[in-house]
Request: fold
Amino acid sequence: MRILVVNVNTTESITHTIAEQARSVAAPGTEIVGLTPRLGAESVEGNFESYLAAIGVMDCVMAYDQPFDAVIQAGYGEHGREGLQELLDVPVVDITDAAASLAMLLGHSYSVVTTLERTVPLIQDRLRLAGLYQRCASVRASGLAVLELEASPSRALEAIVAQAEAAVHEDKAEVICLGCGGMAGLDALIRERAGVPVVDGVTAAVTLAESLVRLGLSTSKVRTYAKPRAKQIKGWPFEHGRG
Amino acid sequence: MRILVVNVNTTESITHTIAEQARSVAAPGTEIVGLTPRLGAESVEGNFESYLAAIGVMDCVMAYDQPFDAVIQAGYGEHGREGLQELLDVPVVDITDAAASLAMLLGHSYSVVTTLERTVPLIQDRLRLAGLYQRCASVRASGLAVLELEASPSRALEAIVAQAEAAVHEDKAEVICLGCGGMAGLDALIRERAGVPVVDGVTAAVTLAESLVRLGLSTSKVRTYAKPRAKQIKGWPFEHGRG
Amino acid sequence: MRILVVNVNTTESITHTIAEQARSVAAPGTEIVGLTPRLGAESVEGNFESYLAAIGVMDCVMAYDQPFDAVIQAGYGEHGREGLQELLDVPVVDITDAAASLAMLLGHSYSVVTTLERTVPLIQDRLRLAGLYQRCASVRASGLAVLELEASPSRALEAIVAQAEAAVHEDKAEVICLGCGGMAGLDALIRERAGVPVVDGVTAAVTLAESLVRLGLSTSKVRTYAKPRAKQIKGWPFEHGRG
Amino acid sequence: MRILVVNVNTTESITHTIAEQARSVAAPGTEIVGLTPRLGAESVEGNFESYLAAIGVMDCVMAYDQPFDAVIQAGYGEHGREGLQELLDVPVVDITDAAASLAMLLGHSYSVVTTLERTVPLIQDRLRLAGLYQRCASVRASGLAVLELEASPSRALEAIVAQAEAAVHEDKAEVICLGCGGMAGLDALIRERAGVPVVDGVTAAVTLAESLVRLGLSTSKVRTYAKPRAKQIKGWPFEHGRG
Amino acid sequence: MRILVVNVNTTESITHTIAEQARSVAAPGTEIVGLTPRLGAESVEGNFESYLAAIGVMDCVMAYDQPFDAVIQAGYGEHGREGLQELLDVPVVDITDAAASLAMLLGHSYSVVTTLERTVPLIQDRLRLAGLYQRCASVRASGLAVLELEASPSRALEAIVAQAEAAVHEDKAEVICLGCGGMAGLDALIRERAGVPVVDGVTAAVTLAESLVRLGLSTSKVRTYAKPRAKQIKGWPFEHGRG
Amino acid sequence: MRILVVNVNTTESITHTIAEQARSVAAPGTEIVGLTPRLGAESVEGNFESYLAAIGVMDCVMAYDQPFDAVIQAGYGEHGREGLQELLDVPVVDITDAAASLAMLLGHSYSVVTTLERTVPLIQDRLRLAGLYQRCASVRASGLAVLELEASPSRALEAIVAQAEAAVHEDKAEVICLGCGGMAGLDALIRERAGVPVVDGVTAAVTLAESLVRLGLSTSKVRTYAKPRAKQIKGWPFEHGRG
Reply:
């Protein structure tokens, strides 16, 4: 099967990292295709950028001209998943939901460690709407911006570990979710340091997407995620070559 | 003061209706400017279109080159308000929140009557995130699409009244919120028929926006709605003349 | 239009302060009438006194013999608003609800700073019932009694600012509500110090009451706030001259 | 021990019924004293009357000049209990809370059957604040006013049984609480008809009050229910002979 | 009346302590019978042991061959109460629920002080399901294992008092529930030290069980707690002499 | 990898059906081992039987003497999963949680269709504790006992389809979860009839268990699910040959 893993920002190197992370757990026979939006911010750390990401992700998925079996939206706490679910017949998995769903199978409560403080309410709100927030002990910010994760991996590791440890000891989290697509690959190190299971959203999403495909399950079309009605739309789809 | 009232769809006649409705309650000295997005759907009835609306609204507000004191987002249950709050220093009022806030001052519980069944979960989710859902007795769909409201006002009226009455008698609503910008102007008729206060989001939002401006209050910038960080963004702002 | 602003305690100087604060934001043409209950405590800081306030407020509003268009109950977290809503045909706005409603338009979460620790649960409970508690980050007490606010304004200011700052930094509040009618007038100073919008309930309530009147909206009478049934009542209304 | 059972309305015959009901389950050695407020309505069916009841009950308890060990407030869903808890050192039990507390020991969910539809939100709100609402399947109104219960017991019985049966079959209630002090004595008949345990608030409160006294437990005085602070109060206590 | 007080662990000395505690408050004419399971752990501090306790308690109650009027399950936060409610016609009271029910009559919020940190989530979950968690300020662990309570009473007292004080001052608890059957007897000492009412689950449960019996109330049999259906069961009841 | 799929009742033919269903979706290289408890009821439809199942499942997993990589508890809404999580180092997946987790990726809300009405509250409670209940539209009973599913598959199909359709049309469910291990294999038929995705817990659990194993994730051991402490336990483990 072919799974599209869509970055939410326009930084190709992050797309590459995410796709590699996805491939590291994909089942034999699963092809991972990494996509980068042609519209949007170089990193997503707030509502304005998150709404751009929603459109950027939908655009690049709709512009992809080969068949595929599932889509993973690889941004933590971003908007847009519901739009993709309307547009597509194949299953859509957001890494925010994927990480929380698996974390809840592993412990009584989980915490998310993310990048900047300003993104904490976005993640909380997305988990609330997803119905996955009740057992969330906390969402904590490492204080590092998305692009700093790439630039300073060791500093990032320390900052994330510090918050993970605080989540375990102060908030009573029993599992840590890595709250940023760009944290892919740090999970084993953090697990060792924090002493609890660490769930990376990208790899979690790959196994969930594969699960849905194998089970023949896809998005319900009876109500919320029914195909958009036929109507006149201005400025969409984006013409090729722009952005 | 000048208040921008931004439609969420691209249908100019609806922008006209909404702006007229806004003017009908604006205080002396308040200028209402109606804006129509140059990107988006002719009507918004689902997540894909709602995410387009989020971008379309931000685009047309940012492209507006005169000073203004507040913005009203005139779509019921749509995405985008948080992005505007980041981008602007002036207050932003969404008609979904405005209607619910005033309705809660008038009765123990309120219901929303909207257009199509598929939009009900969007409205519920927006009210949930806004923290205004606890006293919502129900969100009911009249079964009429947004554009049918304009085409068949008397049929629309009957369908909306039927749901308003069901909300009052079955769901124990004590106030009705009109759940669509395009319903502007029907409130007095429905109030007469349903026997309870009827809150129209557009007029509610005008008085709330004026209130905030008079009180010198605007969006908090300390965390969630801080200005977006300076960064490279592709495909934004939209160039003039496209869409 | 004429708006009655009713103090919840029997201290005339506080009524005067509240009325002046109300007048400072009232629209041209709005007359503010300050009323002081003839029954009740010199300050309200607990349930017993709050229940007396409920009766004292209803008594003085019913004894007012001129026409009026709206009533503001100017006590933070006190009982009684629902009774007024039954007795009157004009809208009733409690400053607790007013401040929270506007605060929620300005930030992702808000905190209340009030007087004594013992009043915190009353405020929390009133906000819970009003359906406005979900986005309340905290209710914090400055430790100063109501009458100390009048006697020592600079000490009061420091104590309130300290709690406002703690609310912003520890509880992640993005907006502060002043949780006492007697704090009227401190909002600009606190805003400057705490760096976030500060909502004063009295001024918020004035604009909300004006909004409802302008929109032709008043309390729903179909159920919870229907007129009291005709029946024999002992000891009510209070005879003139007592209290 | 001596327990004061305080009616919330001014109808002496209801006080008599309630006190007799209390005596029917009181332990040997427990003296039941029925009190009737000298201020308030002949029956309590709404917020205005409920606030009068709050004061009326506090007044008649404070005017009682003999020692007592506990107080029962015998109105379903009325205000005032928190005020009594501040004023007194002995335990205070409200029949609303008492019935719900015992009902929750008997089944997975319970319903309340009360008098008029307009009192339903009051009861729901009191149960919400008491923290006893989560397992409440419904609050249903028989449509009979309080005084009709006394005048037409057999008609009352039928109306209450009909709602109790609807609660069991439609709302999945497993226990019924009688939601009115005036329903005292109907419990055995309704239990037989509805096939589920029926909890009467007055008798439940007697055993709970006795339990607290026997265990040497009374209201916590550290915060919410601390003694009112010494201050000047106008019009209180009510002079003897008025009302 | 005869009340069975069933220990959840297999340590006879704890059964003895619990039964003595129960007798200290039982009404004249109430006989307390202490039962010790023949299956299970010497102390219960986790899910595995708690599930064993569920079976052990049901086994020893079903094996008891004399008539009885009520059963008290004397483990804090353990499984099993629902099974007993199905098997028996007489009322069943769990000490977790009993303590919380009475605590909520005494203060605006309560905390539980229990033994080991690992049992905290079990207690929280049991209170959540019981519908008694909303007003729980915290569940705190003293860090002492169940059997250490017996071995080192003075050390236990200090550790419990420290947590009780933290609950009052940091979590704003107004009442403390002793979260372990083995803490029976420490309540008076802790009350004196922490300055708030202290509710012991065993004595609370005795008065609640007596209350239900006196009121003629027992478990509803219409749905959740209906008698188990007749069916083939392997390995149950346990034969005499094993374990 | 080897996954143990443990039936919660003692009926071998149901174990066989469940194991076959599990094998139908297992990845190449995954060995499914079906286990039947030697203690417990022939079908589980209530709390007493569910607590027996908790012990029966733990017993047969602990008695299994070969290595394994994950355990699936194949009973819908039963007790015991937390105990297994303490005892084992490998991941444990309950089919109740598995079905809900995947259903939430497919639609805005889901419903469960189960067997007898009396099991509905058990399922609701397990979903509540699992933090997966918020988006549950309803739990509906087909009215057929577990063993009737095996005896009358066509009658079962009709009864389940009827409830699934009611869930979609009345409760607005967008996905259906089959609420009984014994319903394994009916999913395709019901999906065709009800028009929405149908999630079978057993197959969902297989893919989730495989996911966790592939990701190297297992139960957190820092708190709730830490290994039971070493202590004396009576009657456990069950001796071989009994039951």
